Request: fold
Amino acid sequence: MSSAGVLEHAARRFCPPYELGETSGLRIRLRDPGGVRPALTLRHHHERRLFLKANYLVAESDVPGAGPPEDGELSFRFRGPLGRQRATLRWRRPLRDGASWATRLERPLLRAIRSVQAVESFRIRWSAGDRRWHLYLKTLSGSMLGGFMSPLPIPVPIDREEAEGIIAIVDALASTGDVLGPAASVGTGPDGE
Reply:
């Protein structure tokens, strides 16, 4: 199976609610036919390491919404042994009104990301000027792997539950605009205050 075939197979896991849109090389844009959800782009990102070649699956979306009055990046901090791990969502640097936004997004984002296996990289950036959340998630699921021990690339499937987790991340970010309504201004707190 080719990398393009693995990518298309991964993209079909997001349908419905999405449908396949334009395809360009190793990039597929998914769109919501109802226009409710923002577009989601899936692509393969090639990385070569000492004993590994991989085309990682990358999911990206620009999600309109509301957030703090200044730009920032959210990240999860995991603590404790794997069986009893606790996670908290924090801004990389303190932001005015940032704590309330992190608290509001923590539960839905954590629930969603736990369903995605083998996450390599996960970033959520807020752009106050654009009023957009920028999602970047790189995972082994939906990827193509190879190495010196394997003469042929090995496809790593992504299952429907993982796709639903990524969709739930997009939905959680999109909900910031829905709850506050279109008249909300940048910097308005998560409770509309």
